[in-house]
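User: Teach me something about this protein's shape.
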Amino acid sequence: MKKLKHQSPLSKHAEAEHFFAELEEKIVQKLHAEATSDDGRRELLRSTGIHDEKLLDEMAKLGITADGVIALRLIPLVLVAWAEGVADQRERTAVIAAATRLGIHEATTAWILLDRWLTKHPPGLCVDAWKRYTHETFAKMSSTAQNRLVELTQKQMIEVAKSSGGHLGIGKISKKEEAIIHQVVTSMRLQAMLQ
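Assistant: First, the predicted structure itself:
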């Protein structure tokens, strides 16, 4: 106890950050174990209707469970947040606001996954899983609904890009952000055409 009284605020902050990083890692490990279990896989299949085995495998590797699958919907926003190499606080806030509008709340699996992807650049496997997820989702939608989802995703990505003020604070969307937005929209439109 005496030791804590003499610790500097920076030292206490570092200890708290270390504690929460360890706690987060344990939670993520638990999610991975749950997602890769037979029960977790059956629940994911039952709740989503996804039959693409490769997608189910990718989701399990990412720790995505049945209640976390909605986080995949926000991968395009996460990619825009990371476009400049760092997801800054304003971009993180914009992504979290979009998540909240989708009904994702703190302490849910989707929130934990999203927070992790905004803290550490998500692996390439996330993009592959998102593409497969979009394909599966579009297969169940009308062309009108597909177009609305593409437009909504594009609008949300633009909001994230504009939230940081563009490159060097100029107040516009950077070239890197524009490129990601274009790639995602093109990919989604291609998926819609394949249905």
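Now, about its shape. Residues 9-36 form the longest helix (28 residues). The chain has a mean pLDDT of 80. If you'd like, I can walk through any region in more detail.
User: That's plenty for now, thanks!
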